[in-house]
Amino acid sequence: MEAVIALLPGDGIGPDVTASARLVLAAVAEKYGHEFAFREELMGGIAIDECGDPLPPATIASCEAADAVLLGAVGGPKWSDPNAPVRPEQGLLKLRSTLGVYANLRPVRIYDELAAASPLKAEKLEGVDLLVVRELTGGIYFGAKSRDEDSASDLCVYERHEIERIVRVAAKLAAGRRGKLCSVDKANILETSRLWRDVTDKLVASEFPDIELETLLVDAAAMHLLSRPADFDVIVTENMFGDILTDEASMLAGSMGMLPSASLGESSRGLYEPIHGSAPDIAGRGIANPCGAIASAALLLRHSLGLESEAAAVEAAISEAISNGARTADIADEDEAVESTSEMTDVIIGCLQRQP
What we know:
By secondary structure, the chain is of the alpha/beta class. It folds into 2 domains: 1-101 and 259-356, Isopropylmalate Dehydrogenase, CATH 3.40.718; 119-253, Isopropylmalate Dehydrogenase (3-Layer(aba) Sandwich), CATH 3.40.718. It contains 12 helices and 12 strands. It has helices spanning 14-32, 45-51, 57-65, 88-99, 122-125, 160-175, 191-207, 218-227, 239-250, 291-303, 308-323, 341-353, and strands at residues 2-10, 35-40, 68-73, 103-109, 129-135, 145-147, 152-154, 180-185, 212-217, 234-237, 260-264, 271-274. The protein has a 10-stranded mixed sheet with strand order 2-1-3-12-11-4-5-10-8-9, sandwiched between helices. α6 packs across α7 and α8 runs parallel beside α9.
């Protein structure tokens, strides 16, 4: 197979973990006889520094011409002033909107060997295997904004078709898993959530009658993610709630550095990125955990390129590396040896090469 992959390393540890994912994808291509062409482009703070735009036109064109897009992370202290007219996060929102990737998939997998890295008791983590489906191109992040000296507003708007399409994605995924869907809203307060609940209830009942639907208010969902995480299968929710809940859910896995994400739309071209930020405190030190970025590359293989066996092999390689004791600093116990970013990447590639 031939494919073009746009690489957006971004800021902070983004270049380090993206380089790791690229090496793993190159190893996949060599092992399975594919040809992957990589096109590296500017995005985020570095793009602001070099051309004054967090998402330059050349980057947009490259992404639109690619089969898939792999992103590192954007932002950092240099560009953190919320009053700045141009910020790295604007580029990320624009990219999601431009590519039409409205469905953000964030799987949370627990490795038994990393149970001690989670702040939760080990028994709470038994059987945890959940998927959060976050609506990504609507809601308060994209609504009209205003501010004067004494007041500010952010408009949260959802249309019926936006809710229907994300709930369909989530319900189809639930049908292929354990058949349980939890919809999270704030319908006791917000009109957008009342529409969300009404649309979700009717759509699941009419189109997915075999799906077991649970509805939770977002504050209750935040509590239950910690008190009974193994009960969840697929969670679907709106943009801001999903942003917050998935960061909370990452603590189940012990580190944000472990978790991937896939942002999908109507076409096969998706946007893939680890859920962590740019981690400026460890940028340039070669100690970032590449597992989230490498797992995101596996999702890229699965969802954009249709290479299920290759995706499963990458995921198995990560699991084998963890089982064999490979640890970056964020997931290591005090008495465990620690691998650098490049060393962890090499271990995973070695495990991949041994896959049948």
